[in-house]
Amino acid sequence: MTSIHRLGRDAYVGQHWFLRETTELFRHAWCFVGTTRDFKEPGDYKTLDAGAFPLAVVRNRDGVLRAVHNFCRHRGATLFDGEAGNIGKSIVCPYHRWTYGLDGELRGVPDKETCFPDLDRSKLGLRTASLGVFKELVFANPDPSADFDDWITPVVDQAWPHDLFAADVREACSLTYEVKCNWKVFVENAIDGYHLAYLHEQTLGGPSPDKNIWKQAGDHMIWYANEDGVRHRLPKKIRDENGSVGTIKSAERTGYGGVYFLFPQTLIVPTPYGLSLTSVKPMTPNTSRLAIRHWVGPWQALDERKHIPGYDRKTGIISSDNWTQHPLETGDFQTEDVWICEKVQRGLNSPAFEAGPLSRGVGAEDPINWFHHSLLTKLQKQD
Ligand code: FES
Ligand SMILES: [Fe+2]
């Protein structure tokens, strides 16, 4: 028996759907920001876009992390620039120099007596967003009353593969992919157990749907493969001078799980040799951005970007526009995934497209069904 694909073509190519998701779904969505180590000093900040909502997380003088909406309460200019930095002792808007403390309170308004005699500064602090930390991973949510425990609790008791701050784990370079597909096409591909043995025949080579299992944990999903189902290809670079492989000790201790999908846009993929965390960001109905952070084990090189098909040294962006070889000849499964997602998006854009059936099974396409269910439930709550 098969199940019905619940989302129609419009959900992947339509502007109306896109606006609904980036405003209504992401208004209450937990998005990955960084690790606690990204915020060492008071004033250290990171920015993120949670769908349509620009946010920032900043460390205040007491060492406390706060999430705020990244816009000035006067006329709306964004206050935190770039991806990360240090804002200093206070947050000064460059437009008319309204000044906020690191706690978000509005402290100073130039020419207040002349220009704003009645203004009540206590009502115009930065808009608060929510913040949560799990295993040193920092998440933010535009909704000031969002409940982090409610969101994360379903995965708390699951086996967790790596301690990111362990002595034998090092952070490697970050990667940015620009992918020509709707953000859900990429997510659905990442939680699709049906394609592994076919699209990735030359790279992952499986497992087939009967050898892997997706488990639901709230709106999240965790993928495990049974022993003979896993075939991790060893990156050449992780061998030491004696030819032996460096694995991460905490991974040896706890096993390495497979894929953790934290609804709606975070993917964590541990292997015995490292861990990657991907934020899937909606850009337009037809394009997405993947922001990827990597942590690697003892022997692996920290910067392998030049080996990634489509990497542009000047911009630092990875894109199919720069491919010089057929994706299926690259030996890189991520390139195979990007290739297929872009092909799917081109097909979805046909006005003649109608959604086909989804294969049944926790090792096949059930997770896509669960994802649609969570997405639709959250959107309907907003209606
Ligand atoms: S917009 Fe920030 S001070 Fe005017
Ligand atoms: Fe894949």
How many helical stretches? 8
CATH fold-type name of the largest domain: Naphthalene 1,2-dioxygenase Alpha Subunit, Chain A, domain 1
Ends apart, CA distance between termini:
32 Å
Q: What would the average pLDDT be, to the nearest integer?
A: 91
In N-to-C order, the SSE pattern is EHHEEEEEEEEHEEHEEHEEHEEEEEHEH
CATH H-level name of the largest domain... which superfamily?
A: Naphthalene 1,2-dioxygenase Alpha Subunit, Chain A, domain 1
**Uncertain residue segments:** none
The structure class reads: alpha+beta
CATH architectural group of the largest domain: Alpha-Beta Complex
| Coarse morphology | globular
Explain what this protein looks like in three dimensions.
By secondary structure, the protein is an alpha+beta fold. The protein has 2 domains: 115 residues, Rieske [2Fe-2S] iron-sulphur domain (Rieske Iron-sulfur Protein, 3-layer Sandwich), CATH 2.102.10.10; 224 residues, Naphthalene 1,2-dioxygenase Alpha Subunit, Chain A, domain 1. Helix content is 20%, strand content 27%. The protein is built from 8 helices and 21 strands. The strands form 5 sheets. Strands 12, 13, 14, 15, 16, 17, 18, 19 and 20 form a 9-stranded mixed sheet that branches. β16 and β17 form a beta hairpin. The radius of gyration is 22 Å and the shape is globular. Bound molecules: FE2/S2 (inorganic) cluster and fe (ii) ion (FE2). Fe (ii) ion (FE2) binds next to α7.
Provide key terms for this protein.
383 residues, alpha+beta, 2 domains, nine-stranded mixed beta sheet, 8 helices, 21 strands, binds FE2/S2 (inorganic) cluster, binds fe (ii) ion
